[in-house]
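Changelog-adjacent note: as of this version, every example in the card shows the full chain rather than a window. The one below runs 501 residues end to end.
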Amino acid sequence: MELPEECWESIFSFLEHHRYFEPLSLVCKRFLSITNRLRRTLTITDPTLESLPNLLLRFPNLTTVVFRDFHGNLDSVLYLISQSGLPLKSLNVSSHKCFPLLGLKHLASKIRNLVELNCSKTGSLKDSDLIEIGNCFPSLEVVDISYHDYGCGFSPNGSLDSKSLSGLVTDYGILGLSSSLKSLRKIDLSGNTFLTDQALVILSSNCLILSEIGIRDCDFITQNGIALAIRKSDNLKSIFMNGIGIPSMDACFLDSFAYARSLSELDLSNSFISDEFLCLIAEANLPLRKIALSGCFCFTFYGVSFLLSKYPSLTYLDLEGANFLNDESMIELAKFFVSIWREQTSVEAFPAEIVVNPRVKALHLGWNNNLNDECLKMASCVCPNLEELNVTYARIRCLEISKCQGVSNLELDFELPKLEVLQAEGLAIDDETLGSIGKLCGRLSLLNLAGCLNVTARGVEGVIMNCKALKELNLKWCNNVSVDIVAWMVLSRPSLRKITL
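Full-length structure tokens:
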């Protein structure tokens, strides 16, 4: 008995990513039709442009379009998309040299229900553009205008030129944008160095359901402005900032956290953080689940441990650069760990006293010069349920051990059934290890072996034959692998999209 298409759609919808639709689409025309309807995201690059009209017809239910490494005429492509009738909800035009105002107007003439717009790192963004964004897409809930290119506003010697005010984002632009976006929930203003405290007051007044705001590297936004925003935004759940508290934190800023009844994520990277401040956060009884103190200074082990003692449900803690940590303090802090521990500092190894913690989901030990084989083995035993990790074994999707000098080789005697990305640049991996990787990492889609000097064509063949989902292979500086093998690789593994020699 044949299953109806609704059943197949329900089954296929359980797949984690649309890249898994490709092998299904080759089975039969029926599966091809179903997977085409289920596709929701399209990434447009320069090579995509020629076939774009056909792709827009092929995937009628696209809700997200992302431009990546695209150097063509963005306005004309957005006009083409506007004529497609797609139910578009999210658009990413980040990192483009010019803000595509004309293209967005074309898009708005047909699609006004856009919910998410990412314009980060675009050039020539200015106040008038923000006002037009609000007019064109009043339903926007998520906006990213972070770190756009100020180049057009400066003279060659770095000073403001006579036209600078027309090429910068100021509080006036935020006023025009926020006045139209009553449904705005998230906005990232990071890198807009000419915004002041008034921008935060405007946002918190006009956007009453604002829940997330990013203000990293906003030089003229002060603690006073942040405090006012926290006090006025009852729904604020996440705030991302840096460089706060130098030379000291004022009382208004400290007291404002008593009003942050919804705050669950707090990023204070590269700030002056005292133990007193951490204790104040601890006593505020917030619904805090994530806190990042990366690059912060002046706090101690006491402040961190007190914070953890008050928030047993904390799921994310970033202490990158906390040089007071050592093996003994890690043992003490481990008593408070609940779900996730993220750490990046100089810890030599996991002491034997640490017991198995199946609740730990993610661990970041990058940039630890003392990381070695024994540490990797211990970590895999201590945290058997890890999902995101850059050094160890478990049900992980991404494993990054590039340039870990203490790791002599990667000896796998266990299966990694969900591993999709392996970054192993600069390791002494040999052909035997590659053979194990091929057999134990069947879902591998990206393999980076750059600088693995012991790798030869024989090892590469083993990976190619066993990793049937492999899309990208980096063999840069692998001098023992000849270019003569490329044709065989392409013919033997049709899934390959990129090979670097």
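Structural remarks: Residues 445 and 470 are 4 Å apart (CA to CA).
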